[in-house]
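ENTRY TYPE: paired fold submission
RECORD: A
CONTENT: sequence, then structure tokens
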Amino acid sequence: TRSEHASMWRRGARSAHSASRSLGRGAAGRAFACGRNHFGSLVSTPIFYVNGTAHVGHLYSALLADASARSRRMAGEPVVSVTGTDEHGLKVHEASVRAGLPELDFCTNVSRSFRECFDAFGVGYDAYIRTTDPSHAATVEWLWTRLAKRGYIYEGEHSGWYCKSDEAFLTDRQVGPGPDGGLVSLDSGHPVEWLSEPNWMFRLSALRGPVLEWLQRCPDVIQPASRRQEVLALLQAEAEAEGGGGDLSVSRPRRRVPWGLAAPDRTVGPAGSATEPQTVYVWLDALSNYLTVAGGAPAAAAAEAAAACGGETDAAGDEAFSAVIGPDGHATAGAAVWALARGDQAGTSWDASPSQLPPLAADPTGPRAAPLASGPWPAFAWPPAAHIVGKDIVRFHCVYWPAFLLAAGLALPKSVVVHGHFTAGQRKMSKSLGNVVSPEALVSGAPTVFADGAEWLPPVSAVRWYLAARGGLGSDGDFDTEDLRARWDKDVVGGVGNLFARLTGSALLPAGQLPDPGQAGLSAEDEELLRRVQEELSSVPAAFAACRTGAAATAISAAAGHLNVFVTAQEPWLLVPGKPTQDAQRLAAVIWTALEGLRLVGTAMQPAVPQVAGKLLDALAVPADKRSWADMTPLFARPAERETHAWRAPGLHLNLADPASGSHKRPATLLFSRSPAAPKARRP
């Protein structure tokens, strides 16, 4: 019965727990943290399925990873950011047939379109992986062979629900009635069908307990917390269900899925039946990309060999990791798997090799100069610092992927960041509704016509800022071009660009140089403002690194708001020569204070809108090596700072607009353009 099996599962888990305690603590004598520190961090997007072209949801995932990687680089962290395309599976095969192209040619075309989209929006990546890369096939074969050798892959027959759109097998709990009366996936709403076929199966029932143990030990691995609770509830319910929640099919008959990697154990069939070729289940294939791009089997083998040569006693072999099959046929995870889940033993990990990484680009926040696009891949860091994924693929990244890694003895990801989706008009984007937002069409196609009649092609930075500010981890965001326009005009053009133009025009800054407040320096009020701006921005580095871009954008806008309020209150235009209230020293102090605040704001904006931030920092003559989080301490123009911070000394020439021909006055330096105003109504 279900209760008897649940009891049996708990007894097996306790037995394996005891063995893991003995193995882990007896050998290593210590507990390992949820995320060990290594040289280098791997930050990944999901790899994007090539059955269609990139839409705004794909771009949002990529921008979150880009902002996280840029923020980490600004903190001095060696980062490798990776993205790519998932190119196997039945839907890809069917899409290629509709397009009249061989599968690989079809995949190449769509994959190229994703790269072009990301390049157009300034998404940085150090490596771009395609699952059709031969190096990836070698990784999948290595992982499959290791799992099979340890008893976690076995010959069986799968009977159950299958969602073709999601390419996922589902349990009875995951299926329910749809709006048209048919059965659908409760997660995605897509139709399901009943399948019965011979497959290779993965003993997920033996791994749910260790995955649950890991997630309970490391409460911050899944972000936000609400997603973690969903995964915990799912695991607990499945672990207590009959059969321990069931096992996972990791292959499909090749006659049904002709496009994909051939399973290393190429034939399978129930006893007494004819065997047939099998294709690796698309999610085992796809998830392995993170391992491929981090160095794959060669990096793992080298790390394990180094650990053995170094005498690390917490390394365990196949026997300790192997599944334990009970007399009733039910399996539990090996003792070393439990030790790894509990933190009593370290999984296989490795550091990035600086000599093998591509050279850094000129942009200190950006990716490396020459992104890698094919294997063999150098030994990038493992485990990943962050997997950034959409809410629709949480199960695959937070249940299946750690189960595969635990069984293989590999170190687990430090974090999985789950973001919401973008809707359009408060409705899910879909081709049938015609409301899918194409990022490239938005910025390079026909201008968008707004409610007031204005026509505008938003710049790339406007879309980046909007997605950063409007998206969220806990809930979905609605993509609204009216809101995009309003946020660009208010937050970036008005809050930052116009303030810079007001401060650096000929009237207030005729010499185009950083002003000199003199020996008196700034007032207590000026210094307090800069400290307030610094405090407002203090949460921004961690927020960007953790993909909480909405919180970061809010803090940046608030800091810019403090500066605008200050300038309006100080009225520097009344302090210029010739005015009854002229005061050259006070004018210099006000301008210095506001420009210094803008330097902090511009530095903080870099992960979200590197092009905009770069323009502002270039105009302020901030050197490229002074744009990190370590440079976020405000300067007060004190005499001692003029020597220690010569790059910010009074008298420094700013990079401002030149006077027009025949004029001695400089025009305002307009860094960013506001969206066009509504057309004037014609008189009758």
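RECORD: B
CONTENT: sequence, then structure tokens
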Amino acid sequence: GVGVYLGLLKSCKQMNEKVPRELTKLYGSLSEEQQLNRDLAELLVGSRLLLVPEFDALLVKHLQGPRFAHALELAVQLIRQCVVAKPVVSPLEMAGTLDVLSKVASRPGAPEAIQQLIERVRSMFPAKDAMKAPPGAVPARKGESDGLRQRVIMLFDEWTRIIDAPAGMKYHASFAQQVQQSGFLKDDETVEHMFGILTEICVAHCLSSASGAGQGQFSFVAVDALSRLIVMLSRFVGERGASGMSVRAGLLARALSAATTVLHRHASERNIAFNSRPYFRLFAGILHELSIPDPQLDSSNFAVLTAFAGLLQATQPSRVPVFCFAWLELVSHRHFMPKLLLAPNQKGWSLLERLLTAILRFMEPQLRNAELSDPIRLLYRGVLRVLLVLLHDFPEFLCDHHFMLCDAIPSSCVQMRNLVLSAFPRNMRLPDPFTPNLKVDLLPEISQAPRIVVDAGAAIGDTQLRADIDKYLKSRMPATLLQDLKSHFLYSPTDAAANGCRYNMHLINAVVLYIGMQAIQQLHNKTSQLPVQVNQGVPMEIFLWLVAELDPEGRYMFLSSVANQLRYPNNHTHYYSCVLLYLFSESSQELVKEQITRVLLERLIVNRPHPWGLLITFIELIKNPRYSFWSHSFTRCAPEIERLFESVARSCMGATKPGEEDLTSKIAASTASA
């Protein structure tokens, strides 16, 4: 009779997945005596007609209640029959009961049968020392129960048994359901706690696998298993389809947040002894798993990219310096950076800009004086290569975000800045700057405005200063603005000591761009094409005053800021080129002319690429008799300087002597390669 009813219930379960839930509710309404009936419980649990995690919670209550003895007998029988002898139930599903039995077995005078049973359960897990950290390597944190940690370890051991099983997706879905039913995903705090424990265990295992204080060959078995577990759970939680996407992406974000917290703690505790390899492997493994197309969740989803950008923002070099090399590798990862840049509507561009400026600002104190240690030199080369990739594959990104990137690049990094400024849209064909009698102002592209994503007015920061500039551009009032600008440009003594210079380069960059954009707008309000002469109007008066009144340090920064706008053909490049040439011709100070020449020349004598606007400005300066360039004494101040100018001049004039280096071909090639 019992077998017939059991068969009927199994048939009902096959037709309706809700049967186990309803039976579990019915079982919970029975009397305590009926609930603790060993035969009934074994039949229902062994046939999986009950939700085992909920039954486990009910049994734990009995084990903690007045009918402890009966409940203990039932618990021992169920574990022996359904977990050990005939493993139809995962130890993870009975984690609460096993936790209580473990405590009972550890008491003095505990029954030997219970001790043996617990040892048998533990021996079921892979004797994969690969998955276990050495004793004491991962102590329990304050407020963390041994029971929770044990349940998490059991979960991970169970995962490692099925991770590569045939028909893996079927097992993965079942495992994800078990994890949910066990309460590990019930709230954000529990999720982060679980992944935090797993991160600690896997990192400890990885580090302990190498011989001798982090040296030797590492085993990444546990770390790889964790990365796959994170992605698997992120794909199986929530409702199927787009409706559950936010839940799945949210779980991934919390897992990354938990790993980030552990990384921060370990970096703080271990300092220079910190080893970033396990964390890099973990995050790179997650990126690799997410690169596999999946309708539920993959790296084409912008929420996934945002979660990773948040991870990288939280672990940026200024916060975790010992992670900087792994960090840069993750930023430029083939499964992250290209997908971030290819996200719809360029939504990912601002995220990448913030990441790149973060590492540039981190390196700035070391790069400022060009005295590089070996690690910083290596990091600099890495950043340079990332920018080269962007110049080749995503030049529009560098075009749009050139202001913020150049604002973060130290003035000493001429080649890096040239690389950013050499970018031009892929649909544009650059005119040859060495074309004889090139009429720049007649080029069709020269009247078009470039795309600038930064708000130059907001970049000024001081709203009152911006308001005063706007008023001065319209009415030349307040009369004190020019002096005010000079005082605003200067750092306080404390800030000057911290920044290694007296002038606020960020403010100078913002003011130069803002005033120039206002000037270009005024010129276009009068005529449809940008005129060659830009020497009239308040903006030029401001520039003339600054170049005359600033000291050499401030003037160099101002001129460098102007030169940062010499890029591909557009109306900004044309305007600022005219500004530099006009400042050269109108200045009565030889030092000003020399500094303008220095700013242009130092950008030309470094390795390619060279910005198109820089080339046409310098060629115009040395070829046009209006500027009398060769009459100035600074072109002949030393034999090597004189030879340098003559060589550059010959390349620009197209009169190269036999046997001498043809700089024309070099510079032209650099422009074409950009």
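NOTES ON RECORD B: The longest helix spans residues 245-270. Residues 126-139, 655-674 have pLDDT under 50 and may be disordered.
STATUS: closed
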